[in-house]
Amino acid sequence: MAVVLGYNQYGKAENRVVRVFRDRDPHEIVDYNVSAALSGGQEPVHLTGDNSPCLPTDTQKNTVYAFAAEDDIVAQPESFGIRLARHFVDNTEPITRARVKLEMYPWSRLNNPHAFIRDGRYVRTATVTYDGSTTWIVSGVKDLVLLKTTDSEFWGYIEDPYTTLQPTNDRIMATSLLAQWYHTSEDVDWGKSYDTVLSALLDTFADHHSLALQQTLYEMGSAVLAGQPQIAEIRFSAPNKHHFVYDLARFSLENNNEVFHADDRPYGLIEATVRRDDAPDPSLAFDPGQGW
Amino acid sequence: MAVVLGYNQYGKAENRVVRVFRDRDPHEIVDYNVSAALSGGQEPVHLTGDNSPCLPTDTQKNTVYAFAAEDDIVAQPESFGIRLARHFVDNTEPITRARVKLEMYPWSRLNNPHAFIRDGRYVRTATVTYDGSTTWIVSGVKDLVLLKTTDSEFWGYIEDPYTTLQPTNDRIMATSLLAQWYHTSEDVDWGKSYDTVLSALLDTFADHHSLALQQTLYEMGSAVLAGQPQIAEIRFSAPNKHHFVYDLARFSLENNNEVFHADDRPYGLIEATVRRDDAPDPSLAFDPGQGW
Amino acid sequence: MAVVLGYNQYGKAENRVVRVFRDRDPHEIVDYNVSAALSGGQEPVHLTGDNSPCLPTDTQKNTVYAFAAEDDIVAQPESFGIRLARHFVDNTEPITRARVKLEMYPWSRLNNPHAFIRDGRYVRTATVTYDGSTTWIVSGVKDLVLLKTTDSEFWGYIEDPYTTLQPTNDRIMATSLLAQWYHTSEDVDWGKSYDTVLSALLDTFADHHSLALQQTLYEMGSAVLAGQPQIAEIRFSAPNKHHFVYDLARFSLENNNEVFHADDRPYGLIEATVRRDDAPDPSLAFDPGQGW
Amino acid sequence: MAVVLGYNQYGKAENRVVRVFRDRDPHEIVDYNVSAALSGGQEPVHLTGDNSPCLPTDTQKNTVYAFAAEDDIVAQPESFGIRLARHFVDNTEPITRARVKLEMYPWSRLNNPHAFIRDGRYVRTATVTYDGSTTWIVSGVKDLVLLKTTDSEFWGYIEDPYTTLQPTNDRIMATSLLAQWYHTSEDVDWGKSYDTVLSALLDTFADHHSLALQQTLYEMGSAVLAGQPQIAEIRFSAPNKHHFVYDLARFSLENNNEVFHADDRPYGLIEATVRRDDAPDPSLAFDPGQGW
After folding, report:
1. Is residue B1 scored above 90 in pLDDT?
2. Would you state the pLDDT for residue A1?
3. How far apart are CA B82 and CA D187, in angstroms?
4. D8: how many CB neighbours lie within 10 A of its CB?
5. Residue D74: helix, strand or coil by DSSP?
6. What whole-number distance in Å separates Cα of residue C123 and Cα of residue C140?
7. Can you list the domains of chain C with their CATH numbers?
8. Paired strand residues for A245
9. Can you tell me the distance from the alpha carbon of B292 to that of B3, in angstroms, rounded to the nearest whole number?
10. What values do phi and psi take at A64, rounded to 5?
């Protein structure tokens, strides 16, 4: 038996770069959290501490801020990520793969050309991966908190010895959505594409009569795919944020599904992929976390 | 020397109550985090474990959810807090004081009468304190993140042996505002009052040419007081969220105040009160934390 | 009516300073989060943006790191805070008051003279306030999570129309303790004093047969005061971290008080002061938050 | 083109179960956060809202608490996870795969047979995956914060146009370690195995003279594999928690590598696998997050 180095990557995480477009009237801003991760040829670093193949994470940081000066690039997370990922691989011997993850925090304009309020409705995300020839582009949204007060049922499920849940024909359905979708083309207006996805998600969530959160997510994904042919698949992680009807009958009060306790933990967690049946394998597109 | 019990209060904190107004079209919701704290006559509990003067925190919780069934009361945090505080004191021997703190999370309607998106721009707050005769009402806002890209200077300050800061005539100014204001009357349309304060805060932040964050806060406070005679004073806690110009000259790139690093810690923290010169003493209105 | 400036202070918050004592064998470290807040003579800053009375928060930051080089001072949060607070007031016209709040993160030594593991059992705190003549010193602990599996009862409380809680003679009692205590002397070995308080808190929590969390806190406070004559009072904030017996009878399983759900929210919150009957007024010792 | 359901799983996340062993003297406790995720045959739920193949997440929750009553099972996260994962697949038509993730919070005994203090040095973890025939078992640790004051260098790296970092022969090295390791056998004393891994990690971190954090991690992984033949590989995610020397020369003070600013973001992030060259493919062992 010998010990060997397996999957590895390294980078600078959570670079908090804010770019102001000061020569426009009104001013514009973009607000990012950028994480880079590189791999390729790093065995000497790990095995002997020979750093000759290592582009320091400090240098990666400088590069993120330097490229933020490029007007066209920095305006969208996808283009910013593409620029960075390709730079790291194409210009750094021996790096063979880069993954750049971006969070973009939306701001709304106040009634003034230079003032803004942070819009906390969601965080827009992008993950760009490049291996020297292929570029994988994933767009996403997270922390999108949605709730509907009716049009949600849950019944007809398996019963086993541990079942105590009562079926319901009318419950609150709420979630904090994380969604990521994979593009098979780069020929995309990223801002417009994002807005179109967001509308499809919100409209479908709102209008769908739900028999299960799973069903609603599938409808939401289908709507996203129907709207844009270059989106091959979408992946959801959706906590079922439980709202329990509070028992007020104990106090001789009616509670016609009106007073709820919003519970923290535990919570249901629904994860699902909706994809075209002819979609290509996403390969390296989605970050596997520690599931290397 | 003898040991004695000093200041004390007890209660149920962070009751997460959601109320749906289901008989309206479209539906409406309010979403609260309610914390109650009671005091008065609790010496036996502390000194000997005799719980006869103790209204359990579990009972306080039930009461919060029960009163959430009352339509007119629950719609505004101030009226919900008043109802609860007076109930606990007036109906519970030996309780002599109640303080109810409420956070209210705003939701926006989606394009559907039953569906909502959580609006993360701020959290609205209220603190109501009642001692059996006087009711103190404080409204507030927190997590209101604001940024202006220009119209902010900082220069002319004290220099001492530890000074290294350079003066500036043009910097980003950003903060995450916490504000609380004290009403001297209950005869208030709470929702309208809150909206008016919020507009005054946002408009003044946006339009004020700032020589110091302190000056901007004072202007914001003055605008709030000018708009509503029953608001006696307003208290601010405002972190100065530093945005540092990134040094790109090292890479032969210009940075005309356009590329910034948004730093986390440390941060400036400005705390200030703006009040009418004839305002009454706020007495118990503001929660002193552990500064009893 | 005129608008005036009320209570105000400003400073640099959360300076994360780590000091290594490198000339000792084995090495020692201290790890701090230091927040300074100054007040006095700041009207021109607020009213007109005239910063001539303002010592910038950036300078305060530099001072914190500079004084961390002083060996004897930096070793204990109380002495570090005293040094900083007196410097800011005594050497800065027109500052008349400084409050310095410190969090100290404990580390334990690994089996090596230069390596450490962060010990997450608690955070040690200090708050030092100085007004040019008097220095108030408060020590503290937070995030001290304690649990006892028995010797805790709760019964005999008030019943009202909203009561549903059942009395119990044997429950889990758990809390995450925040405690702050006020010293009436500076002639104290701060490290030894802290350790003595911590032992008194832990031993009393463990050994006390509790009829209410309030009673246990009072006993804990009494033990602290009994051990050190210069401690005039101690203030507790103690969430009652509820552990609910899970109903397993529905599955024909016994649960003799052995399987619990540890709930998040809501939670009881007990706040109490234990003090000597001849203790002086703590005046400015405890930070009032926004309860100025 | 047709739209289809891809990878999916669902379950109840973050069940906070505490088990007391009350018939032992002294008492013992285990404290868990358990998340279950099931998959198999869920197309009807997603496509039409037909819940007949769905074991509700509420039932999964009940099962977690019910099995916590089993003395031998619940004592170790690996055995608790195995029990749950096999139950869900073996007893629920049509479930074909279960993944159970557990966090275990350590407690230390106070000087009393019934009282405990939460030991915040780390969180122990386990992930168990079962597909009806194979059971994959991964153990882990997270939030293990380590620091060494010397014996860490970093030099000899790539320089490019964005390089500004200076090489160093003596720096602070600090990390908050996340590690997960995969067992190829179930015939393991889980508690003893965990303790052995933890010792190997701590001892190697402390004693290794480091030329790069990557090299230190590789050594730590090698030590873990050397100690236990059934551990096939270990995966690390290690932020490089930067401690920057504060420039005190500006104040005419020496700083011989003694006063540091502990920065928050950005941070280096090193991810690496150390494995036996004959290790089997870990297949489903490690949770891929959204990288399905």
Report:
1. no
2. 72
3. 62
4. 24
5. helix
6. 8
7. 10-132 (3.10.270.10), 134-280 (3.10.270.10)
8. A260
9. 18
10. -60, -45
The pLDDT assigned to A203 comes to: 98
> How many CB atoms are closer than 10 A to CB D112?
17
Q: Which of A188, A193, A93, A202 is nearest to A148 (CA)?
A: A202
Residue window 82-121, chain D: list those with CB within 8 Å of chain A.
91-92
**Neighbour subunits, A (≥3 Cβ pairs < 8 A):** B, C, D
- Strands B135-148, B173-183: pairing is antiparallel
Q: Helices marked H in chain D — which ranges?
A: 43-48, 57-67, 71-74, 77-90, 190-207, 213-227
Cα of C26 to nearest chain A Cα, Å: 26
- Does residue C41 come out as left (phi exceeding 0), alpha (psi in the -120 to 50 range) or beta? left
- As a whole number of angstroms, the distance between CA C204 and CA C196 comes to 12
How confident is the model over A241-272, as pLDDT tens digits?
999 999 999 999 999 999 999 999 999 999 99
For D103-153, the DSSP string reads EE--EEE-SSTTEEEE-TT-EEEEEEEE-SS-EEEEEEEEEEEEEESSSB-
Whether C142 is a known active-site residue: answer: no
What length does chain B have? 292
| Burial of A62: CB neighbours in 10 Å, binned 0-12, 13-18, 19+ | buried
pLDDT score recorded for residue C1: 72
Nearest in space to C119 (alpha carbons), one of C30, C189, C19, C22: C30
Place of tokens 């019910």: D66
Report d(CA B244, CA B144) in Å as an integer: 21
The burial of A77, by beta-carbon neighbours within 10 Å (0-12 exposed, 13-18 middle, 19 or more buried), is given as: buried
Contacts of C271 in chain B (CB under 8 A): 7-10, 37, 290, 292
Structure tokens belonging to residue C159: 């019943």
Q: Do D160 and A92 touch (CB under 8 A)?
A: yes
List the structure tokens of C138: 């408060």
ipTM: 0.97
| CA-based nearest residue to B34, from B72, B62, B70 | B62
Q: Which residue of D has its CA nearest to C59?
A: D251
Q: Output Rg (C-alpha) for chain A, integer angstroms.
A: 23
Set of chain D residues whose Cβ sits within 8 Å of the Cβ of B244: none
